[in-house]
Sequence to fold (170 residues):
Amino acid sequence: MTSTTTSVPSARPAATCSPGVLDWSFNSRRQDPCFVGATIAGGCFPLGYSLAPLPPDGGYQYRYITPEEDTLCTCNTVYYSLESACAACQHERNTWDRWMHWSANCTRTYTTYPRNIPASVTIPAWAYLDVIAGNTFNITLAQSHRDFNLFDSCKPCSHQPCLGLPYKAK
Fold:
């Protein structure tokens, strides 16, 4: 499996889902996981954040988080799930890294998105599924939760359990 870069200056072309691939992964506003992921990650980068398109021939994945990308906006299971779905929706042969490897450079990780969700997006319900227990994004389980996307998150929760617990295992 070949890894490629995750973030690029936001003025560069951004990844998008291939037409008709993983349509279930779009949020209730019909925004694809690439756009939603880049938008929530961008909350911690003054110049914005964009997921680069993976090569069109498939067989690629996004690389792990680098120390420079170690932020609340990227070191969380919600962003990891969105980035994983972004890889999958670009080509059926693309894959994603295991959670523990992908998040190894994060000082602290969260089991939800720990910041205010930007008003321009909603986060699909499947992005909140547990990835830690299986150490990976489970695309089959995510697809089985597609009908719950009617309940996208557009605001952070105001109670502690929803804010997520830091998780770091080495």
About this structure: The chain is about 20% helix and 10% strand. The helical segments are 33-41, 77-90, 99-102, 139-144, 160-163. The longest helix spans residues 77-90. The first strand starts at residue 2 and ends at 4.
